Amino acid sequence: MLSTARYENMIVHYFGKRGYRMKSKKCLKIGAAVLAAMMALSVGMTGCQKAENASSTTSASGSTASGGSASITYKGTINFYPQAYNPVAPTQDNPNPPTKFKEVAADYQKLHPDIKISFVANPPAGTDYETWLKTKAAGGQVPDLVWEQAPNANTSASGIWTDLVPFMNKANPYVEGNKQWIDLFPKAVINQIKDVSGKIYVIDADYVDTLIFYNKAMFQKAGITETPKTWEEMIEDCKKLKQANPGVAPMGIDMSTSNTVYSWFARVFNSNLYYKDIDKIDIDGSKGNSTLSKIVAVKKGIYGASDPRWCTEWFQVMKDFSQYWQPGYSTAPQGGIIMSFVNKKVAMYYDGTWANKSLKDDKAPDFGSFPVPQITANTCKGGNDSINTAGAAGGPYAAWQYAIPTKKADNSMTDEKLQAVVDFAMFTTTPENNEKVCNELGEFIPTIVGAKPPESLSGMAEAAQHELLALDGACNLSMPLQQSLTRELQQYLLGKKTLEQAVQACDQVTKKEVDQQIKQHPDWDIDKYLK
C-alpha cells in the first residue's frame, strides 16, 4: 500500500491531483498534480555527456568534480522537500519509503561538513498543497528547496521564486567536463518549463507518462490476443470485452474535475489534429509548449471554437467512447479508478507510470499495459495516421520539480545560502544521483543526460530521446481553466448540453483565462505577436 501523505499532496498540473493516490485502508484515490502529468511523451535528449565520479578533476568553473564548488561559505541547514522522493520514516501504509535522497544528502554533507540537509515532513493528510505553499510563502517559511509544478511557479506572485537561468549557465562542478548546468537537461524539458520571458524557476529532472492498463484474463476471455494499435481497434476490443464480461465496464475513466484526464486526451488529440500547423503555433522555438505560444494561439483564433480540431472533433470521439466507461465516470469513484481495476469492475483503465507499483502492491489481477492507440483518419476528421501522439500526455511534470524561494518567501534565504542551495541542487542532478533516486521509486523516468531508467520502464527510454510534441489546446494554462473545460465536456457527454453549447462555453472560459493572464503580466508584450 502507498503512503497517504506521500502522494496526496502531489499537485500535478497535467495529470491530476496526485492526492488521487490517497489511501484510507483499502481506499486509494488517484488524482492531484504531478501529473498532469501520461502516455508516451518524447523528451529530446541533447546529446551524451559522460559523467564519472572522478577522484578530483578540475571543472571549467575552477572547482572539482568530486569536491564541488570551493566557493561555498554558508554554514547551516538547507531545508528540502522532495515530494514523492521524500525519505520519510516507514509506516504501516508505506513500509518501504524511498531512501536514496538521504544517501545523496549524506554524500553531499561529507563534501560540505558545515552544511546539514534537513528533509521537510510531508504536509498533513488532506492538505491542499498549493494552499499550504502559499501560506508558507506569506509567512516567509517556504523550504529552501521545495517541490512545485513549473506551470504554477511560472504564474505565481512576482518575486516568490528565484530565476535559475544565471546559475544554469554556469558549470555543474560535480559533473566532469560540464560547462553549463543547463546542458544536463534535455532541451525539450527546458522548453516545457520556462516561462514566457525565458526564466526558469524549477530544477526538473524526471518524467511521467500515461498508458492503458488491461486485465489479461478478461482479454483472453474476450478472444483478444493482441493489444490495440489504433483507436478503432480499441473500440472493437471494448465491444468484445462488454460481450464476454457481463457486468464489467470495458474501460475505466475518471472524468471528474478532481482528475486531469481531460488534459491527457486534449494533448493526444490536439497534437495529432494540429500537427501540420505546428509552425503557426510555435512562435518561440518551444514546439507550441510555452505559455506564450498557447496564449498567442488563442488570441489568433487557432485554438478556439471556430476551429473544429480544437474541441469539436475529439469531443465527438469521447462521446462514442464513453458508452464503454464505468457508470458515474464524471465523479471520482471511491478508492479511485485504480481500485475499480483491482476489484475487477473494469477490464481496462487509463492511468500513468506511477500506478504500476500501486497495482502490484494492491495485488491487482495479472495485467499488462499499452500506450494510447494511434489516432487515424477514421477516428475523426483531420486525424493523421502518420503521427503517433500517444506520448503527448506525458511530460516533465512529476516529483523532481524543485524551486528555490527568494527572501520574500523564505526569511532565512541570504545570498550566501542561495549559493549553497544551488550547489546542493547541482549535486543532486549528476546522472548517477538522478538515476539512483528516480529508479528506487520506480515510477518516473530520470531525465538528466546520461541517466538511465529502470528495466521495468526501459521501453519509455526511446520515447524520451525525441523532441516533445504536446499541443494541449491551451487547456493547461491553469488548473481552474482545466476544471472548467472538464465540466463542459461532462455536460456534453451526459446529454445536458449540445456539442455546440459545450464547445462555445469552452471557448469563452479559455479566452477569459487568457485575458486575465495577459492583464497580470503586461511585461509579456503580447501585441507584438498579433500584428
Order of strands across the widest beta sheet?
A: 6-5-7-14-8
What's the rounded overall pLDDT mean? 85
**Total beta strand runs:** 15
Helix content: 25-40%
* CATH level-1 class of the largest domain: Alpha Beta
What is the gyration radius calculated from CA atoms?
23 Å
Tell me the number of structural domains.
Answer: 2
Strand residue content: 5-15%
The number of helical elements comes to 18
Largest sheet: 5 strands, mixed
Q: How would you classify the helix and strand content by structural class? A: alpha+beta
Q: What's the CATH topology label of the largest domain?
A: D-Maltodextrin-Binding Protein, domain 2
CATH architecture of the largest domain: 3-Layer(aba) Sandwich
The low-pLDDT segments are 1-66
Indicate the multimeric state: single chain
Cα(first) to Cα(last) distance is 55 Å
The CATH homologous superfamily of the largest domain: Periplasmic binding protein-like II
- Global shape: globular
Overall description:
With 531 residues, the chain is α+β, with helices and mostly antiparallel strands. It has two domains: 46-208 and 398-463, D-Maltodextrin-Binding Protein, domain 2 (3-Layer(aba) Sandwich), CATH 3.40.190.10; 210-393, D-Maltodextrin-Binding Protein, domain 2, CATH 3.40.190.10. Helix content is 33%, strand content 10%. The chain contains 18 helices and 15 strands. The chain has helices at residues 4-8, 100-111, 129-138, 150-154, 165-168, 187-193, 216-221, 231-244, 261-273, 278-281, 291-299, 312-321, 337-342, 355-361, 415-428, 431-441, 479-493, 499-520; strands at 11-12, 16-17, 22-24, 27-29, 76-81, 115-119, 145-147, 202-204, 206-207, 210-215, 249-252, 346-352, 367-370, 401-403, 445-446. A five-stranded mixed beta sheet has the order 6-5-7-14-8. The protein has a four-stranded mixed beta sheet with strand order 11-12-10-13. Strands 1-2 form a two-stranded antiparallel sheet. The chain is globular and about 70 Å long.
